[in-house]
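Final paragraph of the annual report: two paired records, presented back to back.
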Amino acid sequence: MKVALISDIHSNLEALDAVLADIRKLGIREIVCLGDIVGYAADPGPCLDRVMELGCPVLMGNHDQEASRSTPLGNYSELAKAGMVYSRVNLDKDQKKWLASRPMKMKLHGATMVHSSLYEPEEWHYVMDDLGAELHFMNQITQVCFYGHTHVPCVWEKTNEVLLRLLPKTVEIGRGPFYLINVGSVGQPRDKNNRACYAVWNPEDQSVLYRRVAYDFETTQKKIHMAGLPKKMGLRLAEGC
């Protein structure tokens, strides 16, 4: 039994298609999306259609939530706001309704899944440092939790005495510690690696393997330019930042 965990697609159709092809190549049939299908790049509708066609569990991300609304945007960067506005314009009513109905968190095969943090998940906190991780672990009941949101793959390991941040490599989940595992970003990696990132989890032997997939980011960049979105939005895809 293996589960492909994808997150933060952000309207990048070329990256999503490359990842789905890699998942098929591995023979994995179970997929979970941890949110932020839309935002940033130029293909919110096609990306959302792809994910909906999978019929897999999907969590809500903050970009998904904002794209499904018509209320004023909150405290986001100019790049994020541009992508959210573009998504609002280019999604139809049914797509927005579907996004708005996604849950904030879920449990599957004994693990918890959330887009951002189990500490006030509706506030979209970032788990990027020890404080963010400690606040999250105060609310984690299962031994393992998967998340996205930061676009940076990493593994947090928590015991009563020690909190460690581990490199994103193959993880063998031990019996004692609690784990918080960031699956990385399909459509906008920010760890200086421009390849799409996702994770493969085996609930039977409790292992997690990271996968990096090259994709045609130049086509994504051209689409961003043609859509009139900020130039930086495309440039960062080549740099993985």
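The closing record of the year follows.
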Amino acid sequence: MQRRYEKIFSPALNRDVELFAFGHYGEPVIAFPSGGGRFHDFEGNGMIGAISHLIDAGKIKVYCPDGIDNESWLNEGLDPHWRAVRHNAYQDFIVNNLVPAIWEDCKTPGVQIGLAGCSLGAYHAANFALKFPHLFHYALCMSGRYDLTGLAGGSSSPEVYFNNPMAYVSNMGAETLHHLRGRTHLALVCGQGAYEDRNLEETHRLADLLAHKGIRHERDIWGLDVEHHWFWWRKQIAYHFEKALG
């Protein structure tokens, strides 16, 4: 398997962002680390191994950027507004630096990109897919949290609002929904086992909201034994990537 370590400078973050890139050919996918995680977490926890047959076959290329959750949503010392401001700097990196780098690497400007993540990484996958459907056509969201009020507390900040899927999707108008429908698809996956209570509840809430708004999605609820754990996320990513991207 082709594996590369790279750094991409982010003007918004004012630093290099580390990432691993896996694969020689195929549909590009950005895989976000779980909450507070690093760029090497997907590989280190066996997620790349779980889909290595798709990477080796030239079906997909996977890009694993560093996360900054400890500076943004998980930074309890900051007001939610400033957590959102920091997240928006990360958003700038993904949209304005990483996406063009992927297009150049794939030698296909404008190619649609898939997204994946588990735990807080699932939030990122869903949020980016819903905000930028012209860039991201698919998001695999495993054991996610999708309501920022449970993570960052209540806030009237527009920066928080426009990063809270349960808030901004609820109020999407017809023109925005027309743009979104048909452009992207979200797979919302969650188990019913240990440490999945809030994630399961928010998975159902987001799926219900997407259904109400006519946004393409799949609600995939796994069994009572399926815990909030890499062991299950490895199985879920292999199953869904084989179905959607294989």
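The domain at 3-244 is CATH 3.40.50.1820 (Rossmann fold). This concludes the annual technical report; the extension proposal builds directly on these records.
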